[in-house]
Amino acid sequence: MSTSTVLSGCQLMKRMAKEGRKEIEDERRRIDLLESQIDALGHIPDTPPSQIEALRTRLRELRDRLELDEAQQSALEDEILASCS
User: Fold this and answer.
1) What would the pLDDT profile of 22-38 be if each residue is shown by its tens digit?
2) Neighbouring C-alpha atoms within 13 Å toward the C-beta of 17
């Protein structure tokens, strides 16, 4: 394998990692927006508290999944740095 091929492979992996990080940041913004919408919904009269609690539970699940995705992304980025340095 030539040096230029290895560099291209590293550049591709770094680009993919950067895109993965951007997707995680986008998801974090969507979750934050969802949280503010749930908060606003809680201030509307006649909104059943059970509905708000169900939404908050789902929001916690989304945040937990995001944290897992972030940990996996960080591990991938560390692996790319180690293999491409």
Assistant:
1) 999 999 999 999 999 99
2) 18
The answer, yes or no, to whether residue 1 has pLDDT greater than 60, is: no
Contacts by residues 52-58 (CB-CB < 8 Å, ≥ 24 positions apart): none
CA angle 40, 24, 57 (to 5 degrees): 40
Q: pTM for this structure?
A: 0.80
- Is 52 in contact with 41 (CB distance < 8 Å)? yes
**What's the sign of the alpha-carbon dihedral 52, 53, 58, 59?**
positive
Entry field: residues in the chain: 85
Instruction: Give the 3-state DSSP-derived string for 43-71, with helices as H, strands as E and coil as C.
Output: CCCCCCHHHHHHHHHHHHHHHHHHHHHHH
Dmax over CA atoms of the chain, in Å, equals 68
- For residue range 51-64, what is the model confidence (pLDDT) as tens digits? 999 999 999 999 99
